[in-house]
Structure formats: structure tokens, C-alpha cells
Amino acid sequence: MSDSTLKIVTAALIIIGNEILSGRTKDANMAYLGAELNALGIRLTEARVVADTPDAICGAVNALRAQYDYVFTTGGIGPTHDDITSECIAQAFGLPFGRNPEAEAVLRDYYAEGEVTEARLRMANTPEGAILIENPVSKAPGFQVENVFVLPGVPRIMQAMFGGIRHRLVGGQPMVSRTVSSHVPEGQAGGPLTELQARHPDTEIGSYPFFRDGKPGANIVIRAVDAAKADAAVQDVADMLTSLGGKPIIEGSADV
Amino acid sequence: MSDSTLKIVTAALIIIGNEILSGRTKDANMAYLGAELNALGIRLTEARVVADTPDAICGAVNALRAQYDYVFTTGGIGPTHDDITSECIAQAFGLPFGRNPEAEAVLRDYYAEGEVTEARLRMANTPEGAILIENPVSKAPGFQVENVFVLPGVPRIMQAMFGGIRHRLVGGQPMVSRTVSSHVPEGQAGGPLTELQARHPDTEIGSYPFFRDGKPGANIVIRAVDAAKADAAVQDVADMLTSLGGKPIIEGSADV
Predict the structure, then answer these.
(1) How many domains is chain A partitioned into structurally?
(2) What pTM does this model have?
(3) pLDDT digits (tens, 9 = 90+) for A185-239
(4) CA atoms of A113 and B158, how far apart (whole Å)
(5) pLDDT digit string (tens) for A139-155?
(6) Which domain holds residue B157?
(7) Do residues A27 and A113 both lie within one domain?
(8) Which of A126, B149, B187, B199 is an S-S bond match for A130, by CB 3.0 to 4.6 Å?
(9) Hey, of B29, B49, B104, B139, which one would you mutate to test binding to chain A, going by the most A CBs within 10 A of its CB?
């Protein structure tokens, strides 16, 4: 439904870790990357959460790197035996895997002599030819191979490292987003909304129900690359909700 | 690494919705289902978040239903034009799609005469032969086709409906889980942990770093079907951490 003259730049995210699937840890990286990428004009189009097994990681990497412009992975690059992301990336690309001298130098510089354990040095292993991603928080770097960016799972560190790779990403036009909220329930607005979506083909109209102040309602979210087209759809949606007895409230931003 | 004599029952989750990918809405269903399924002896092994497009939904359903014992979908079964999950499930199974008389009766019974809009009746459309899943909160049902269970995205409603399908699920042995936490950093414990994992092949040992009270540390999580085997590994991990100068704390539960 997007403007067919504009190329849409896409991305996928692979969240690696049994602890996310077991419910033990809640992922906080998808929402962050979804919003940040959108601000760069890159659309997070799919995310997968996979277990800490080579087949699962390698399979997801190869499926998604062929399908999307960018792939990001989070998790599994620490110093312990269950951190196997880096070697799986090498396997996915068919690249040799081994000690990266630049990464090793960073770690040897950071840790005191006696603290440079073999476990820590595992974090200096990368696929051959990988471009490092600097880690301003805890030093152990991530890396990039072709269109795949390998990041840690800890949100604070991942976010700091994402700041360092923004400039490597070439986006398209960011989507603008407007929200029209009202207490008109979806069951009432649904029919008219279908017609409005058809009348505004270069916008994406989504409806997200809520229950607030004891009453049902919905946030109607209008997204488009062209702000004028978004605004035209917003006006029509607001008029429609008003005609159904609602008191629509319009909120908007250029970066969500 | 699990006991090879025991069948592991697996599940995948498909989270449907642009709003999750854009970062606008945070998913709350994966963590819930991961924990609940584990308590039933079913292992959530993969999750995918896909956009509201037929290709994305249909592709994920067909890939995952062939690969896992159970597939759950959340989202996209409301009354608006962007709710397309149900028809995509029909498409994925090659089934006719249309009004389900039982679901229609439920909705007509719930809504007052004038409130039975065409949009609301969309929620009574299912693939032919689908088994309904009762919705005790807002009535519009989900449904099951073979090993695929179609649930709503709103966590409160999804959880209430999951309660109604528990008895349809046949699990295996639930995993027990124990956590050993200490301020021994992963970089110190990593080497010994690799050996302990090798010595306890019927357990899964995961290490999750934290930064607490100004100091790094890690939660070492030991999971196994056999509680005695988990406990033996816990003891070895605790002894190892003690030998490295840590003061390990052991926590355990049978259902996470």
C-alpha cells in the first residue's frame, strides 16, 4: 500500500537466546530497534526469536539476510559456552572463524593482565574479514559481515553500540505516523475504516483497540512516507469518527 | 543436550502486527506463553514477529506448523480491515473461509440488535472446520485448525482464552529450572562452566550477566527434565563459583 515509486529499505531482527523463549527474560531490543530504524527510514519488517542452537541461528541468518536489506542479531556474544552467535555467523557465511587481532587488542588493553581469561578472549573471535562494532560500555566488540550486524543482548550496551553504526546504514524516507484516538469502538468504525483505507492507498491505516476509563475505544494509526498524504487520511478518519459521535484526538510524530 | 529417551514437545509463536515491529506496542504474549507452555512440558522453541501482510503471515504459518508440534498466533483477529489473520490461516491450510455459524451465534447473542455491525461479524469468519476457542472476556472467539491455535493480541484476553485450551495440549515432561547467582563475572566463570556443561550433558546451562550493586555478576541457569540431574549440576556450579571466591545463591522453581 506504499507509494510504489519509493524504494522501501527493510530490516529483520534475530533475537538469540533460550532465556527470551522461556519467559525468563523479556526482550527490550525489538521495540528500540523498530523505532530507531524507522527514524532512519528503515523498516523493521520481521523479527525472529531463536534458541541457542547452531541450526536455529544459522538458518535464521541465511533466510533473512537474503530477504531483507539489513539483518541485526542481538544476544549470544558473551564469554560463556552458550554464547555461540559469532561462530554461527561464520558458518552461515561459510567464512573461517578465529581470533580477530583488532578485537583481541581492545580486550587486552581493557582487562588487567591476570583478567585476560580464555573465556574473555572468546569474545575476540569473529568471522574472517568482519568489520568491528565498537562497544563503548564494556569493550567486547560486535561486528558486521556484509548486511548482518551482530550486537549484544544487554539493552544498555546494544543501544550504545547501535549509536556507532547508525552512519553505516543507508535508509529511505522515514514514515510519518499520526494517531487518531477516540472512544468509538472498532466494531463501529471498522466498516468506514475499510473504505478510508481504500481511498488512501499510499497510507497504512491500522486500528488498535483499547479499554480506558471503563469504555472501549481505538487508536487509529496512519502511517505514510508522504506527510501530506498522511494528514489527508487523518482528516478523513477524524471526520468519520466525529460522524459516529466520537471526539477524536489527533497526535502525531515524525519518528514513530 | 536433553535426555535422548524423552520426546520433547515443541511450540512456535507467531506474533502478528506492524505495531509490534514499529516499536509502538510492546509484545507481552511471548513471555507469558513461554512460561505457561513450559509448565505444561511444551517448549517454546521459536517465535516470529511478522507484518500484517498475507505473504508474511501465511509463510510463517506454513513454515512453522510443519516444524513444531504446536503453533500459536497472536493478533489480527479483530473487526477492522487490518485484521487478516483468520483468512491467512485459511489460505495457509488451503481451506474455504467464511462465516462460522457457531461464532456468529455467540456474537449475535452478545451484542444488542443495532450493534451487530458487518465489521463485528467479520470476527465470526473462520476457516471451514475450525474448532472455536471461547473468549470469556469479549466473546469474539479464536479458533484451532489442526496444530495451529489462533489467539488475540490483547494480553488480558489472550490469557483468558489460553486458559480454555490448556486441556487440548499434550505436553511432555516440564523442565525444572534452578538459578545460581553470584558476583563472579562471566569472564572468570566461563572456562570452568564449559567443562561443567560437558560433564552434565542432560542439563542445559545458560549464563546471563548482570550489573548489580555496582558490580558485574551472572545468573547461571540450569534446566533439565530430571530434577536430580539439575540438582547435581547446581551443586557443581555452586562449588565452582565458591572456589573462585564467589558467594553463590541458589534459587529454584519447577515451572520457569
Answers:
(1) 2
(2) 0.93
(3) 999 999 999 999 999 999 999 999 888 888 889 999 999 999 999 999 999 999 9
(4) 53
(5) 999 999 999 999 999 99
(6) 9-168
(7) yes
(8) A126
(9) B49
